[in-house]
């Protein structure tokens, strides 16, 4: 693949860092802060990020398993988050080759559509199970997740930007 002009060649992602970031996002989502419809889903952001950058390591199976963890923790309909995360990962898998050509800021509006689709799946499954419509505040969550996409991308790619090893001939 030809690298886009000005884009750095990244080191491989550390699997321990990948798993730790997903575990941290899961823990942050499970904090008892009172889940409101407009709250951004940090696990959704990280699943989409790692699904785009490491599709062989983080896929639909990982997303489905973490979605089941979220369902159990939030006492939601079993499979509601799991289905939404799997739909998100499917959309990321369809578009990840194209999204790599854009900067993180340019990716954000495109990711907003995938985040909105994932939240729509959650709302529709909840409505089919007899839940109530969450109102217009549910539209704020995909927008906030899209705003968090560029800083999350920068933060999660930072460990891969370092030089593999320091030597005396390479200038810092």
Could you outline the blueprint of secondary structure elements for this entry?
Blueprint: H1 15-29, H2 42-53, H3 60-74, H4 80-99, H5 104-128, H6 140-157
Helix pairs in contact: 1-2, 2-4, 2-6, 3-4, 4-5, 5-6
Commentary on this structure:
This is Rod shape-determining protein MreD. With about 170 residues, the chain is mostly helical. The protein has one domain. Helices cover about 60% and strands about 0% of the residues. It is elongated and about 65 Å long. The protein has helices spanning about 15-30, 40-55, 60-75, 80-100, 105-130, 140-155.
Structural descriptors:
elongated; single chain; 6 helices; 172 residues; Cell_shape_determining_MreD; mainly alpha
Q: Strand share of the residues?
A: under 5%
> How do the helices and strands follow one another from N- to C-terminus?
HHHHHH
- Number of DSSP-assigned strands: 0
The secondary-structure class comes to mainly alpha
Number of helices: 6
Distance between the termini: 28 Å
Shape: elongated
Q: Provide the domain count.
A: 1
Multimeric status of the protein: single chain
